[in-house]
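Complex record, two chains
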Amino acid sequence: MRVVALGGIGEVGRNMTVFEYDGRMLIVDCGVLFPEDDQPGVDLILPDFRAIEDRIDEVEGLVLTHGHEDHIGAVPFLLRLRPDLPIYGSRFTNALLAAKTREHRQRPKLIEVREGERRRVGAFDLEFFAVNHSIPDALAVAIRTPAGVVLHTGDIKLDQLPLDGRLTDLAGFSRLGDEGVDLFCVDSTNAEVPGFVTPERDIGPVLDDVIRRVGQRVIVACFASHVHRVQQVLAAAQRHGRRVAFVGRSMVRNMGIAAELGLLEVPEGLLVDMDQASTLPESKVLFVSTGSQGEPLSALSRMARGEHRQISIRAGDTVVLASSMIPGNETAVFGVVNGLTRLGANVVHQGNAKVHVSGHASAGELLYLYNAVRPSNVMPVHGEWKHLRANGELAVRTGVSPENVVIAEDGVVVDLVDGKASRTGRVEVGHVYVDGLSVGDVGESTLSDRLVLGEGGFIAITVVVDSSTGRAVSSPTISGRGFSDDPKALDSVVPLVEMELARTESEGITDTHRIAQAVRRVVGRWVADTYRRRPMIVPTVIPV
Amino acid sequence: MRVVALGGIGEVGRNMTVFEYDGRMLIVDCGVLFPEDDQPGVDLILPDFRAIEDRIDEVEGLVLTHGHEDHIGAVPFLLRLRPDLPIYGSRFTNALLAAKTREHRQRPKLIEVREGERRRVGAFDLEFFAVNHSIPDALAVAIRTPAGVVLHTGDIKLDQLPLDGRLTDLAGFSRLGDEGVDLFCVDSTNAEVPGFVTPERDIGPVLDDVIRRVGQRVIVACFASHVHRVQQVLAAAQRHGRRVAFVGRSMVRNMGIAAELGLLEVPEGLLVDMDQASTLPESKVLFVSTGSQGEPLSALSRMARGEHRQISIRAGDTVVLASSMIPGNETAVFGVVNGLTRLGANVVHQGNAKVHVSGHASAGELLYLYNAVRPSNVMPVHGEWKHLRANGELAVRTGVSPENVVIAEDGVVVDLVDGKASRTGRVEVGHVYVDGLSVGDVGESTLSDRLVLGEGGFIAITVVVDSSTGRAVSSPTISGRGFSDDPKALDSVVPLVEMELARTESEGITDTHRIAQAVRRVVGRWVADTYRRRPMIVPTVIPV
């Protein structure tokens, strides 16, 4: 059996792992990664499908462990390669995917599976296990082939008091361990964090306590797929006589789906829409909103800037960020907290109250998993290098031999042969960027230009020359954008460019490319000496 | 007495507060702020001097509380307004400033002051108090005028076991409190953090324990001005038979100054330079390096990328980040940690070992300060809104009346009249950007262009037209930068531009500005429809 991650190892996001046996493939998850600062203008980053696109018909199916974007977000793009790919997921996962593919005008072939179920998918014998996470209805998957048994956790934690009573199936993992697990792919996100994640249930009393004391508006922001978090907010609101309005498109949509599937219990008459909410006294309403990551266009960010159409924050309002802070979003989140504080709101967040718990197993829980499964080989997944390595060390502490821990980043080929997993090669895996409507045309060269332009702007020099003599037929047009607010900033380079053009003409240079190079050199040197800056220099020489 | 902060309130950085009495002014601190993501290409942000520049001769002096960049970094720019401004600072502060101003070819008038000293500076009667912080020789300053007594903490904490035995002078603050403090300006950085900062001294045994167990190279990164941290690293290195090399220009420079002033004790023969270090066995050397904030050009970042000329990280090396993570630097720091981990290094940081303590008083310590000083009025300084508000609440809990807590952001004018401080107005305070050699020519318009260019690049269209008929004399030149890697990406817009030029010609339009507008509209609409992107559209119409 062969295992290749096309995303999700060495990074947090775009999870996608390909399992291959006897020429047939099975894919687990197909998510997106959100861009960082050095990927400006990019909307999403996809797993790199090149390693499978020529063999897409050999894929037996796609298993989705749960409905988060970093596990399902790239499915519409995979479906472009093969619209009839069979997709296996739980009820909630499939419902979220169906909503997403509708926006892409796709109708994928969705097959519902559930915990405890065993199902043959071509060459692969699958078994699904209940796991808990920060979204309902998450699954782990065991993949049995004649070459061995793999267990993939997906995202997992071991909340022992889950709100919906649906425990991670540790007993099932033990039974599978008795049978023998050859390769265990384990969520690494929190492997560096010692101890255990507090039960989700313990947030309820904290929320209750916060809401009880507020005489004005309460706004709670959290992830739009965190049904159990929202469930506890609804309960607290009801106890304190507040009606609830959902704010933000994805919150409204996802909670609608969750309620329809019976995963979110909504007490009769509790929900109101924004128009009704605005007619209620401030002490009788609670808003559940998106925007907990400081997304600039979200409702919460607009409130923090005082730009929200319906909700003007004032002294005495309380905003609860019942959410984590995804690394890289700190500045944005702090910006929202400061904006709200400046307007007088009391902001409650995980830094000053226990209003968030993680969805990923900490080190203590991972030890339970290793001891239940007793795997022969371990491959940490879902994480950056520091997480993978910490996770591997936990495996070793439970008795897995260090040489059976495979730290494999995206694209590394891992072969399981005679019960031993090892790295045997590498397929090419790059970043595939989605920018607006198109996929892949924005690459590293465009991004590096954007970084230069974003840092220093550009100076454009346009020269019209006589194509036979190379003589400039008018004075050069020189302008900058993103360079200076001073309209005279470029004045003193004009004579230098004119001198250079006189020189190229006197040397009989008529080649527009050579003239452009000469102009670029003069302007580049001038700007470095005068300003010590490095804008992009863009010469255009037009022959007439 | 009038108080106006020109920086440092509502933000973390560029601290500068102006005190005015009877037409004479005293400035406390003059630091820089480091730019955020929405200020691309900017090197530094200065306090806005406009409120004082016309009255610079009425300034009696500048008091520097300590030598960190956010307190002294803008001094060279203030000196451009008045080179002979008297500057009062402690020995170490003045030495760091002298090194800085030498780079600017300035020779400021530095006057050394020390704790316990009382000194008249024009209309102001100053008294200096020892405080401890993450740099030696920090001072608080009391300013007595006939209109009242102000106490400004600068950056402060209350380490009760300081490495150099120099305690924050709580007794002095109490004595001043007996006399009566009318306005207390207090460091807010850690006001949200409950409890007390662990003594700096407690890091020593942790470092010792880490270094003891390593058989290969050890690299410790920390702030280049954190003399006491480095002192403890030197002690641990010596105990384990390692020589020490300083890496990074500012580390070498600052530790040289500290050693010269007797603030850093360097055991005979302990230090080696990089060349000597490379000849020693790996178990006999320790590097103390800059780069703890993930700065991309630092030695540590180069090691993490495998690009450092002298130090190639390999499995078994240990890197200690004995530093905080300044908000906004998380992604960069995690990038360095992952890079080092990927190369096999063991990375020790504040997340997995007690190798850093803050330099700023937590809530518990701030309560000690309020109870010692018993101020009539409080003005929280040094912090974002959330910090200021948390600090104000601490003051109230010690008995300060809420209406005597003044939360004043940059530019707010606070007047102390008859023992009551209140907000009475506002002076204009903007961001003053330093980009390369020039100050102030990069403003909000340039930054907003940079943000657009950085997100989407640009499309330039150059057209040469006959100035009398408006007819295009050659086909338009269309090119993009930061737009697409696909060389054909813009092909399909060319005929649209040609059609538009035919239309403007047929309507007899010869005005180049109107032609440019028409071209911009066509290309903008096309790119939005085709790509759903928003590059900058840059038309240039040249009449011949």
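Note: The mean pLDDT of chain A is 96.
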